[in-house]
Design brief:
One of its GO terms (biological process) is lipid catabolic process. Keywords: Chloroplast, Hydrolase, Lipid degradation, Lipid metabolism, Plastid, Transit peptide. Its main location: plastid. Pfam families: Lipase_3. This protein is of the alpha+beta class. The chain has 13 helices and ten strands. A three-stranded antiparallel β-sheet has the order 2-1-3, covered by helices on one side. It has a three-stranded antiparallel β-sheet with strand order 4-5-6. Helix content is 31%, strand content 12%. The chain is globular. The protein has one domain: Alpha/Beta hydrolase fold, catalytic domain (Rossmann fold), CATH 3.40.50.1820. β7 (254-258), α10 and β8 form a beta-alpha-beta unit.
């Protein structure tokens, strides 16, 4: 069906109607003829637009025909833009329409059996989904950490391990936390550890940094194996000795980095994998040396149309931003297209990195009332946190096996 406009002759090209629609007023029909024509294809979308146009014309009898035509042209342009968006949407779901591959059939190569050869550019879709899944587990180390210096437990995990994933809204994840991990330091480095302002604290020389988790029976069947995941937060770690040890053990490492992030470059600004081998050997016992391990997957936040141009270096290191970049990465030089349905709003959970027109407030994730609760007496206070069961009943057995304690 086509609606032709020629002068004031309004033709409704339907076999049952040969008169102008009743919504057009006499005053409108008596206006001076115009040398203008417009043909609008009627699609499923434009039928609704047509109905709206007819109603709007009847309520604006004094409006000129050119303005009506202009509005219809705008509607057509809008429909064409919508079609382009729909085309983009189709292109983002192409991978989902392909035959689904099961991780249980491909986990050895996904975990680096062949050092991810021909899997990074273009990126393998199953590899990307697994990286996102493990990345979300690493993100929990940030979400569960107590950053508040006014908290008695600043520097610790906010949740006990038995309810860890449930408290983070990840009860579907299919893993059980078995151990918590801590970093300790006897050197007083300013701002290196988060510390409470309370006089009596849970620890003066340690911070919680992560956990060990094991897949449950249902997830293990899905993965094709029992999976042990170690997730932690922290800067660059590992010197040449660390690198050599991992290679001897056959540990496969895939490093996902933002090329603009400076954090993975320290320590080791001077002594790193780029200096001559003899220099690396001389410096390998020092705390200032560093050597990269494994294979690198380099991402670039400037490729994402969702992220703003900012000089805030903390945004470049933000893990949620890394997951966003990974979600839209298809290969070097390829268009950035999100694939998993992961919400871009997560980027601003603990940063100000999304473009302002998305209207997502920065640093939007907050605890209700900053963790304060009202006592039966009506006073606001910090609740006592359940004691962490950091040493399960079998810990003594394993420490004995390692020769760290004696049975005597």
């Amino acid at each position: 069906m086509v609606l032709p406009f020629e002068g004031i002759c309004y033709k409704w090209s339907d076999t049952s109607h040969h008169q102008p629609p009743k919504t057009l007023s006499t005053q409108f029909l008596s206006q001076k003829p115009l040398q203008t024509s417009l043909a609008i294809p009627i699609t499923k979308t434009s039928r609704a637009s047509l109905a709206l146009s007819k109603v709007s014309v009847s309520t604006r009898d004094n409006e000129s025909l050119p303005s009506i035509i202009t509005e219809l042209q705008k509607e057509q342009d809008s429909e064409e833009e919508q079609q382009e968006e729909d085309d983009d949407e189709v292109s983002t779901t192409t991978e989902e329409q392909q035959p689904k591959r099961l991780i249980s059939d491909h986990w050895p190569e996904i975990h680096g059996q062949d050092d991810w050869v021909n899997m990074l550019d273009p990126i393998d879709s199953l590899l990307r989904s697994e990286l996102l899944r493990y990345g979300e587990m690493a993100q929990t180390c940030y979400d569960a950490f107590d950053y508040d210096p006014f908290s008695k437990n600043c520097g610790s995990c906010r949740f006990v391990r038995h309810s860890f994933f449930d408290r983070l809204g990840l009860n579907h994840i299919g893993y059980d936390v078995t151990r918590y991990l801590y970093a300790t330091s006897n050197i007083n480095l300013p701002n290196f550890f988060k510390k409470s302002r309370w006089p009596q604290v849970w620890s003066r020389n340690a911070n919680w940094i992560g956990y060990v988790s094991v897949s449950n029976d249902e997830m293990s069947q899905k993965l094709g194996r029992r999976d042990i995941t170690i997730a932690w937060r922290g800067p660059r770690v590992g010197n040449v000795r660390f690198k050599d040890r991992l290679e001897v053990l056959g540990v496969k490492v895939l490093r996902v980095v933002n090329v603009h992030d400076t954090v993975p470059k320290v320590p080791g600004i001077i002594f790193n994998e780029h200096v001559p081998t003899f220099v690396q050997k001389m410096a390998k016992g020092t705390p200032w040396s560093y050597s990269h391990v494994g294979v690198e997957l380099a991402l670039d936040h400037k490729k994402s149309p969702f992220l703003k141009d900012t000089g805030d270096f903390s945004c470049f290191h933000n893990l949620e931003a890394h997951l966003h970049l990974l979600d839209g990465y298809h290969g070097k030089g390829k268009k950035f297209l999100l694939t998993s349905g992961r919400d871009p709003a997560l980027v601003n959970k603990a940063s100000d990195f999304l473009k302002d027109h998305y209207l997502v407030p920065p640093f939007w994730r907050q605890d209700e009332n900053k963790g304060m609760v009202r006592s039966p007496e009506g006073r606001w206070m910090q609740p006592e946190r359940p004691k962490h069961d950091d040493h399960p009943h079998d810990i003594h057995y394993y420490l004995t096996q390692l020769g760290l304690v004696s049975d005597q």
